């Protein structure tokens, strides 16, 4: 029998709680739900008012993995949705606004991905993101070097950057900006990616072509485009172990000497929140936003 639980007055059917989703650690679906409930206070503000794309892996990352943008079939009527403009025509997408919606979505077994804009102003970004993706044999260690360079470069333009792990191989650099058209933000991000490639020699590329990325850090600026999304802070990732896209301190970035130093699993996040709070909280405050140069 599927257990029924109540969250904030909403009845939820939570299924297959004993199913092992992360084979390397034996992490179960019940533990996925527990993780999201535990980090909800930090995660929800980063989801709120942003249409959510789901990367679903109902049988674990070794099974079928598929990306969902439209409202999934069977979505409860109380889950808020919104119509989102797209070049191929408008679509209706989910907004995860509260704990009940979060737990409903987590029961689908999801990564959460969100755009750099909110539903009130689609295509007008309030943050900028750089996805630093290492091409083997480069690793997150090299990503840290590039992140530190980008941090200083953004600071020269009056923009304060924050950083999180991707939950996979690299890093995400983020900053709050005064609302601007996504195309404008993407153009500025591309300028910095090209500059990083020029200044850091053979260690960086701004080009997506796979064959050009070996041994280099790909500075992906394209996730600033209005149609693109980035893994939301604190989301689990569909990896063999329950890795998290976890905020990190700049001291941790500066001292990173081996890839394992910046791998955080679900069980690591609650103690980090107790120690640091939400390191990305400044992204949520309009006072921290800075204009593009």
From TrEMBL:
A Pfam family: LigD_Prim-Pol
Ligase listed as a keyword: yes
GO molecular function: ligase activity
Record's keyword annotation contains Cell inner membrane: no
InterPro entries per the UniProt record, alphabetical: LigD_pol_dom, MtLigD_Pol-like, NHEJ_LigD
Keywords annotated in UniProt: Ligase
Domain DNA ligase D polymerase span(s) in chain numbering: 28-279
Annotated protein name in UniProt: ATP-dependent DNA ligase
Organism annotation: Streptomyces dengpaensis
């Amino acid at each position: 029998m599927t257990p029924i639980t109540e969250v904030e007055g909403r009845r939820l059917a939570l299924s297959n709680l004993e199913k092992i989703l992360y084979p390397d650690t034996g992490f179960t679906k019940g533990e996925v739900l527990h993780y999201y409930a535990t980090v909800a206070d930090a995660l929800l503000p980063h989801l709120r008012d942003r249409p959510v794309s789901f990367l679903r892996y109902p049988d674990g990352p070794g099974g079928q993995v598929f990306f969902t943008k439209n409202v999934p079939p069977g979505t409860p009527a109380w889950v808020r949705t919104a119509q989102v403009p797209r070049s191929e025509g408008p679509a209706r997408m989910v907004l995860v606004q509260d704990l009940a919606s979060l737990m409903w979505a987590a029961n689908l077994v999801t990564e959460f991905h969100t755009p750099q804009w909110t539903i009130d102003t689609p295509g007008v970004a309030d943050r900028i993101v750089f996805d630093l993706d290492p091409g083997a044999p480069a690793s997150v260690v090299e990503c840290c070097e590039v992140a530190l360079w980008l941090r200083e470069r953004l600071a020269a333009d009056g923009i304060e950057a924050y950083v999180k792990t991707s939950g996979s191989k690299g890093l995400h650099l983020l900053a709050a900006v005064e609302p601007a058209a996504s195309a404008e933000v993407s153009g500025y991000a591309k300028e910095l990616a090209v500059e990083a490639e020029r200044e850091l020699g053979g260690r960086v590329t701004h080009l997506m072509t796979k064959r050009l990325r070996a041994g280099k850090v790909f500075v992906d600026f394209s996730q600033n485009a209005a149609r693109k999304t980035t893994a939301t802070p604190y989301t689990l990732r569909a990896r063999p172990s329950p890795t998290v896209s976890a905020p990190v301190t700049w001291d941790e970035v500066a001292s990173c000497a081996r890839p394992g130093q910046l791998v955080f699993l679900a069980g690591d996040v609650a103690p980090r929140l107790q120690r640091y709070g939400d390191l990305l909280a400044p992204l949520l405050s309009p006072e921290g936003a800075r204009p593009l140069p």
